[in-house]
Amino acid sequence: MGNMTVQDIASQQYISDPAHLRRALDRVLPAVIKPGRYAGGEWNMARKDWEAAETRMAFLFPDVYEVGMSNLALRILHGLVNEDPRFLCERAFAPWPDMADKMRSAGIPLYALESFRPLRAFDVLGVTLQYELSYTNILNMLDLAGIPRRAARRDSGDEWPWLIAGGPGAFNPEPLAPFFDAFLLGDGEELLPAVLARIGADKKNGVPRAETLARLTELRGVYAPAFYTPSADERGVFQGWQAAAPAPPLVRKAVVADFNAAWFPARCIVPFNETVHDRIMLEVMRGCTRGCRFCQAGMLGRPLRERAPEVLRRQALESVRATGYEEISLVSLSTGDYSGVSHLLRDLTADMAGWSVNVSLPSLRPDSFDVELAAEIQKTRKSGLTFAPEAGTQRLRDVINKGVKDEDLFRAVAAAFDAGWNNIKLYYMIGLPTETEADLAGIAAQAEAALQTGRRRSGKARVTVSVSNFVPKPHTPFQWAAQDSRETLQAKQGYLRDKLRRTPIKLQYHDADMSAAEAILSRGDRRTAGLLEVLADKGARFDSWSEWFRPELWQEALRATELRAEYFTGARPWDAALPWDHLSAGVTKEYLRAEALKSERGERTEDCRLVCGACGACGDTA
Amino acid sequence: MKIRLAYSKLAEAKYIAHLDLTRFFERALRRAGVEVARTEGFHPHAKISFGPPLAVGVEGLAEYVDVEIRDGRRSLSPAAQAAAAERAVKALQAEMPQNIRILTYGVLPPGAAALTASIDLACYLVWTPLWAPVAEADLRRGLADWLSREEIPVTRNKGGTARPVTKNIRPFVRRMALQSIAGEEAPDDPGFSLELEIAMTGAGSARAADVTESFCEFLALPWDKDGVVIVRAGLFTQGEKRLPPLGRIN
User: Fold this and answer.
1) What is the pLDDT of residues A187-216, one digit of tens each?
2) Which residue from A minimizes the CA distance to B10?
3) Does residue A73 lie in a domain region?
4) Cys bridge to A366: A82, A409, A427, A449, which one at CB 3.0-4.6 A?
C-alpha cells in the first residue's frame, strides 16, 4: 500500500453508501471476535444531522474499541464537539486483525460507528496519540480507509479529510509529521473547536487549503509540521528547526484557563462490550506537582489544576443518571494528592447511597495513603489496591525524585491490610538512570517486607510486583538519558525472577523488545516516519499488544531505512538539538536540565506546591 | 416484586453478546431510577435473569428477562403492584436504545417458574440466499426427505485441542416449513425462507444456523452462507399451547 499513488487509492473499489456498508457488514460481523466493537448504537451515542453540520469530524483511536472507549480524552473531545451545533463528531477504532482482514477482502473501508460513513467522507480526522506503539495502527487505519498516508499527497482541493492529532504524543510528533496536517498541543477543550470552526468556515468560503493551514498556525497550540524544516550539519546530524512565517518558531501548548468550567462528559457513551475502564471517570485534577523525573504526563500536564469538590459531586450525580454506570473512578495522575480526597470520597459515597454505585481510586502514592483514606475507599470497594514506589532503594527514588520513603510504603501497606485488603500490587520501573544491583535487590526486599506486613495480619495476604522498563521521554528531565539495551533489561528481569522465585510474590514484567521499539519513536525524529511506513507495509500492527508485536519486523525496518536503534535509545549530549525543541510544554529546557543535574547528584526536588521549582509552566498559561 | 419483560433486539443490537446483557439492563434500570433487588454477600449482584441466549448476529423479535425490583414494602396490593410495575417499565423504556425496545410486561405471581425452566420451544425465520435459482418443487422434495430422516448428524468443531462433537439435531426440529422462495427486499435475488420450531430440552437443543447448514448441504444447494439471515421470532412454552409466557404479543 505504501507505494501506491493517489490515483491508485482513489480508484479502489470501496463501498461508500452507508446502507450498502451495513449490509456488507452483516456478512462479516457474525464471524469476527466481539462484533459489538464494530456495530455502534450504544447508549448516549449522538445521532446528528449530517447535512446540518459545518464541520464533520471523526475521532480516531488507534487501538481496539475496548481500549479506545476507556480513554478520557475521547470522552471529553468527542462529547464536546458533538454538543456544538456547528459540528458533528463520530468515532472509529483500529479494527482487530481478524476484522481488518475481512474488511480488506470484502472491500469495506474503515467507517465511523455513528453513521456507517467511510472516513473519507469526513472533513477532519482527529487521532489521539496516547502511546508510541499505536503509531503503526494509524497508518493501517489510513490504508483501510483508502486515504493516502502522506499529507503532501492529500493537499489538493477538498478531496481528502484534514488529518490532525493531539494527546501526549503531539509533544514529539516527528515520527508522524509527514502524515498529519497539524498537531494540537495541550488541552483540547478550547483549541479543537477553534480548529474545527476555522476549517469549516474556510471550506464554506472556498479558502485554499494551504491558506487555511497558515491561519491555523496562528492559534496557540497548533503545530503544522509543513512549516518547519529540520537543518542538519554536513554529517546529517540534526541541528535544529527553521520555521516559515506565519508559523511561530516555538509552538506553545494550549491551556484551559478555567478547569472548573471546562466541559465534562456527563452523558458519555456507555458501551455494550465490557471495556478496560468501564466506569464513570471524574477528572479531579489535571497536572501533577510531584516532579518525578521520568514522568512525561506530569510535565505535560502542568500547571496543576484541581476541580472543586462541589463541581465533582454534581458531575458524579449527572453522570450516574445519564449513564447508569455502577462505578465512579476519581482519576488524575496522583489522586491521593487531591486536596481533601478523604472528604470527597466520603461525600461521594454518601451521595451515591441508594444508587448501588462504587467509588474507586486508581493507583496511589504510598505517602498519600493513610488509615482515613483506606477506611473511605473500603466502604465501597474491596478489589485490589495498587501502590507505585517505582524504585527499590531510597537512593534511586531520590534520583528519580519519587519522594516516597520505605516507611511510607510499609505504613500504607499496613493500613491497607488492616482495612481488609488482601491483594496489594506494587509498581516498579527498571532500567532507570544510575540503577545498580542493589536497587534491584531493593525491589525484592521491599516486596517481601510488604508481604510480611500483610501476613502478620492475614494469612490470605498477597503481593504482586509489576515491573515496567524505563523509556526516556521528551519534555522530562530524563530526556537526555540512555535506555538499557534489551539484553540488559532481560538480565535484570531474570535477576528479579530468581530473587522472587522462592517467595509467593507474583512477578509481572514488560517485553524488553517492545520497550526498545517504544524508545525509537519516543525520541524519534522525522526519519522515523519512513520506519513507520516500512513497518506498516510489512504488516506491523497492534505493536502494543504482545500477542501481535513482531520484533523481527522492527529489525527488518531498521535495516531497510538504515537507521540505528542505538542512536534513538542512547544518551543525548546536553548541547544537542532535540527534535522537539520547537514545541513547548510550558516547562523550560533549562529547568529540565537543572533537574537532570540534580538527579545525577541524587538530590531531591520538593513538591512544587510547597516550594516552587520555577519550571515555567505557571507563567505560560496567559 | 418480579417483573417479566418481553423485548426486541433488532438491527445492530443483534451483535450484543448475551453475556453483556445483564450489565446493559442493570445500567438501564439505574438510569431509570428503578432499584433492583441484589443478592446478599461479598459480591452482591442484581437479580436479573434471562431466557435462553440468543446467538450473536441473530435478531430477536420477542426475548424475555425477569427483573426483581425492590418495592420497599412486602405487602403491596395487586393494584399498587401493577401501578409500581407500570411506572418502572415506563421509566425503563425511556432509557432503552433505539434497537432494544420493551414490548410487554407482567408482574410474576410468587413461585413462578424461571424463564429457562418454562421456555422449551424457539421459533426462527431463516432467509438463505442462493447463488443460482433452485426449483421450488426440488426444495419441497428435499425438505420432505430431510424431515423423514431420523438421524441428521451435525459435527461442531469446538476449536483449540477439543475433539469435534457430533450430535443428532433431528429430534430437536419440531417443525420446518418452506415459507417463500424469494426475498421481500430483493424479489429478483434467488433464495428461500424457512420457518423453524426447535425444541429446547434438558438434553440440549439445535442451533438454527446448524439446521440451515445441514439442510443446504443435504440438498447440495448453491447457498451463500455469509448471507444467511436468522431471526428468532418467538420463544414458547409447549405445555401451555405454545403461548409465550406473557400471552401473545401484538
Assistant:
1) 999 999 999 999 999 999 999 999 999 999
2) A41
3) no
4) A409
CATH for B63: 3.30.70.580
Which chain B residues contact residue A116 at CB under 8 A? none
Q: For residue B74, what pLDDT is reported?
A: 66
pLDDT for res A6: 47
Say if residue A5's pLDDT is above 70: no
Q: Which of B14, B21, B25, B31 to mutate to test the interface with A (most CBs of A within 10 A)?
A: B31
Cα separation, A190 vs A80, in Å, equals: 10
Q: Which of B93, B116, B139 is the last residue of a domain?
A: B116
Contacts of A321 in chain B (CB under 8 A): 31
pLDDT band at A382 (very low <50, low <70, confident <90, very high): low
Supply the DSSP string of A444-474, one letter for each residue: HHHHHHHHHHHHTT-TT-EEEEEEEE----T
User: Is A520:A486 a contact under the CB 8 Å cutoff?
Assistant: no
In chain B, the number of structural domains is 2
The neighbour count for residue A249, using CB atoms within 10 Å, is: 13
Assign residue B206 the CATH number of its domain: 3.30.70
- The answer to the question of residue B142 being in a domain is yes
HEC-encoded secondary structure of A230-287: EEECCCCCEEEEEECCCCCCCEECECCCCCCCCCCCCCCCECCCCCCCCCEEEECEEC
Tens digits of residue pLDDT in B154-207: 988 777 777 888 999 999 999 999 988 875 555 678 999 999 999 998 889 999
Which cell is A235 given?
Answer: 554529517
In this structure, what is the dihedral angle of CA atoms A544, A550, A556, A558, given to the nearest 10 degrees?
20
CA distance A496 to A241: 43
Cβ–Cβ gap A41/B31 under 8 Å: no
Q: Is the peptide bond before A246 cis (omega within 30 degrees of 0)?
A: yes
**Structural domain contains residue A289:** yes
Question: Which residues of chain B does A31 touch, with a Cβ-Cβ cutoff of 8 Å?
Answer: 226
Residue pair A598/A605 in contact (Cβ under 8 Å)? The answer is yes
Nearest Cβ partner for A324 among B17, B27, B98: B27
Mean pLDDT of the residues in chain A = 92
Q: What is the pLDDT of residue B217?
A: 95
Please name the member of A30, A31, A325 whose beta carbon is closest to the beta carbon of B27.
A325
Which residue on chain A is closest to B45 by alpha carbon?
A356
Structural domain that includes position B192: 121-240
Indicate which of A108, A272, A323, A422 best probes the interface with B, i.e. most B CBs within 10 Å of its own CB: A272
For chain B, what percent of residues have pLDDT higher than 90? 65
Tell me the residue range of the domain where A351 lies.
280-510+587-600
> Same domain, yes or no, for B100 and B155?
no
Please give the Cα distance from A25 to A112 (Å, whole number).
13
Within 8 A by CB and 6+ apart from A19, the residues are: A116
Counting Cα atoms < 13 Å in the Cβ hemisphere of A41 gives 22
Interface test with A, best of B8, B29, B30 (most A CBs within 10 A): B30
CATH number reported for the structural domain that contains residue A463 in this entry = 3.20.20.70
CA atoms within 13 A on the CB side of A482: 13
Q: Do B131 and B228 lie in a common domain?
A: yes
Q: How many domains does chain A have?
A: 1
The residue written with cell numbers 444531522 in the block is A49
Question: Is A43 within 8 Å of B27 when comparing Cβ atoms?
Answer: yes
Does any domain span residue B246? no
Q: Is the pLDDT of residue A305 over 80?
A: yes
Q: Which residues of A touch B26 (CB under 8 A)?
A: 324, 326
